[in-house]
Amino acid sequence: MSNFKSDEWQLRVDLAAAFRMAALLDWHEGIANHFSVALSNDGRRFLMNPKWRHFSLVKASELVLFDADDDKTMEQNNAPDPTAWHIHGSIHAKLPAARCVMHLHSPYATALSTLSDPELKAIDQTTARFHQRVALDLEYGGMADDQDEGLRLVAALGNHQTLLMGNHGVLVTGPSIAETFDTLYHFERACRTLMLAYASGRDIRFLSDHVAEKTAQAWQRTAHAGLTHFSEMKQVLDRRDSSYAT
Hints:
Layout: H1 6-24, E1 34-38, E2 45-48, E3 64-67, H2 82-94, E4 100-104, H3 107-113, H4 125-128, E5 134-137, H5 147-157, E6 162-165, E7 169-174, H6 177-200, H7 209-221, H8 225-240
Parallel strand pairs: 5-6
Antiparallel strand pairs: 1-2, 1-4, 2-3, 4-7, 6-7
Helix pairs in contact: 1-8, 2-5, 3-6, 6-8
């Protein structure tokens, strides 16, 4: 911690905790996928996990600071995975309000993304949280390993915080690490509920637009609960292994 300012250190600890939580919940995929958080006011300087580091091993001190304006980034010894650079670098460069960016191939969100109709339909309280609040990208063309693909994803996200990436996975942004994680957590839960309902083969009773919107607005009024959720999850981590905070 002595090498970092207190505000940066707290961001490092919280982002490292988010990686550990994702691994605990079995959302990780090998040594792929990335989380990032903006450090500068304009969002262009950001912290991200080092290349090919398993989520369950990430520590606060080893997160790497990148600059979206540095065109020499991919020539550095600590260069990130190209897909990480083009996705996260593009979002932090173009969308300063997206302070935190989390991209995963989590099981149920990814499964939903492969359907011919991948809309997250409202069938219960949690799926209704996302009623008409998710952007859909149906133009998957391979790994996002060039700048054009990164910019295309920025456009697909638009003014939404959640992007369901067709045949790919999910990307969530937010004003803080805690709030972004909470959105990602509930999105994956919602996808699980819907996919399990589909798998039953039975007729599904969908919520009306009116009820779904009313429920989504109720979620918005209690958005602060996401901060407590994240704090509680950190306590769960601390009981298991607090090394993320080193």
